[in-house]
Amino acid sequence: MNFDKVIAGFFIIFAMTLNFGFFYGELSDITMHSRYELFAAIVINIIATVLKLGDRTQMGSVLLATSLVAVIQLIAAASVWAIAGYNVVISQETTAVIVSLSGGALLANITSVILYIGETVKSKR
Fold first, then answer.
1. Would you list the domain boundaries of the chain?
2. pLDDT class for 125, splitting at 50, 70, 90?
3. What are phi and psi for residue 81, nearest 5 degrees?
4. Which of 20, 51, 80, 106 has the largest CB neighbor count within 10 A?
């Protein structure tokens, strides 16, 4: 068992599940989406991205690209939330933008997990 692959796989899957946890809920209700979970998703996605930096294969490049997309979209979601105001009631449109950005990041995370699983299955043969 390769311990480095275990750690990388853990953070890749953890990033996806945290992102899903933030994304899940009614699109226009900000109370169903925790800012702490968004922050955790950003941190874990950054860790997963850093872990992918050393891989110099073609698959490693694609995995890094999916992680960068997820990080950028999650940071954009957090930025929109911060600009909208911390103590002010956030409108439904702004909430939809925040959740939609995290949905794009979730799609990038799902792609990353699928590619990671495919790479793992391929390497077994």
1. 3-124
2. low
3. -65, -45
4. 106
